[in-house]
Structures are given as C-alpha cells and as structure tokens.
User: What shape does this take?
Amino acid sequence: MITQNDTQTKRLMDLWPVFLWMFFFMMSNGVGMTVMPVLAVINKMPNSLLGLIVSIYFAGMFLGYFIGPPLVRKSGDRISGLLLLPLMCVGLIGLLLENSFLWAVGRCLAGFGIGISYIIAESWVA
Assistant: This one.
C-alpha cells in the first residue's frame, strides 16, 4: 500500500532536476547582477546608463513572458530549457566586453531566458 509520504517522496524525487536547473539559472543571474555594477565602476560607466541596462533586463523578462508560452508549447519543456542555457551564457559573456550596447543586449537576452525559465519551471511543478 502506497502511503501519502511515499507519494510526496516520489514527487520530490521527480522534481529534483527542475530544482537543480533553476539553481543554476538563479546562480548565473545572481552572478551577473552582482558583477555588473563592479564592472561598470571599473569601466567608468555613468549611473544613468547602468540603470538603463538593468531596465532592459526586465524588458527582456517581460518579452519572455509573452513569447515563451508558444515557444514552450511548440518545442517542449526540456528542449526549451536546454536552449536557454546558451542564452544565459551569452548574457554573462556580454559583461566581459567594454561595450555598453553589448551589455544591454546580453542583459536583455538573460532576462528573456529567465522569464521563459520561470514559465518552464512553473509548468513542471504544477
């Protein structure tokens, strides 16, 4: 006889890849958001430009919420999740360059990836 505790344990074991995947996405996002102001000071970037770049990150996340559901429905959860990994890497690699336009593009792509990753994780857990 399967008890409720066994069912909860099985459900948790089924979800551990989702939690691990979200951990790496959140870590990469946290590193990007932490390193960005430090690099901006080193590159002598104006505060207003840095504020604009951070706002573009949230614009990318907003776009991800609209473009993500049809994309995930068409390609599936796992394929979409795998395709987001290079997107997050591009967002972090953009910070290594001293071009503020590339920073903005990289942060927009990172925001887009995080927005879609929230959609995927929510569909897995629900």
Notes: Residues 15-125 form one domain.
